[in-house]
Write a structure and sequence with these properties.
Carbamate kinase; nine-stranded mixed sheet
Length: 242
């Protein structure tokens, strides 16, 4: 795909893992990463792209892993993970506003003193007004990942695409960190991702995208320039379509 002089997407949902915010730290939030990320998102707004973010909480607490490791009830662990996403969302909001980007945090778990409750019409209005919105609190329900949140919110917001930022540069036939024979796919169909049980996103998120013809691009977040390169039409990572 040739690079376009204009963005090929008007409205995007960018899915960020909690680990993407920790940088080289063992846990927590790296302020340098936050600052650099805020500048890249500001650039997207300068390109007149509507931007919604869905952020995970794995840099603070991961519900499924925490419950199995520490003996915490799974539902309780998932709610703890949702609260971790709120912490990350507030940190992103603070850094974005310092960069001059008007931002709103919308939470699926109501906490009036910290963020607005998620209401679809309100979220749509924020996007229409040029505000970057940050979805936190997951879907508000245990047993659902923030990948599913990203797919669900993208469908609700009528987004053109989901951009999933990861630690690898696309979807592989196996874990490229442990297998030298892992093959990278430039493009895939959703049904093949499900059949091959590839762990790029959970099956619920993949099924939501497939049923609603919502494309997905998986790319490496280590180079933050990749975000703009994707929206400008460069062939980055792996694109998944119906």
């Amino acid at each position: 795909m040739a690079k376009s002089k204009r963005p090929i997407y008007k409205r995007i949902v960018l899915k960020l893992s909690g680990e993407a915010l920790q940088g080289d730290l063992s846990s927590g939030i790296d302020q340098k990463v936050l600052r650099a990320l805020a500048e890249k998102i500001k650039r997207l707004r300068e390109l007149k792209i509507d931007v919604a973010l869905v952020v995970g909480g794995g840099n603070i607490f991961r519900g499924a892993a925490g419950s199995s490791r520490d003996g915490i009830d799974r539902s309780t662990g998932d709610y703890m993970g949702m609260l971790a996403t709120v912490i990350n969302g507030l940190a992103l909001q603070d850094m974005l506003e310092k960069a001059g980007v008007v931002t709103r945090v919308l939470t699926a778990i109501e906490m009036q003193e910290l963020a607005e409750p998620y209401i679809r019409r309100r979220a749509m209005r924020h996007l229409q007004k040029g505000r970057v919105i940050i979805f936190v609190g997951g879907t508000g329900n245990p047993y659902f990942t923030t990948d599913t949140t990203a797919a669900l919110r993208a469908i609700e917001m009528n987004a053109d695409i989901v951009l999933k930022a990861t630690k690898v540069d696309g979807i592989y036939s196996a874990d490229p960190m442990s297998s030298k024979k892992a093959k990278k796919f430039d493009s895939m169909r959703y049904i093949d991702v499900l059949k091959k049980r590839l762990k790029v996103m959970d099956a619920t998120a993949i099924s939501l995208c497939m049923d609603n013809n919502l494309p997905l691009v998986v790319f490496n977040i280590k180079n933050l320039d990749n975000i703009e390169r994707v929206v400008m039409g460069e062939k980055i990572g792996t694109i998944v379509r119906g």
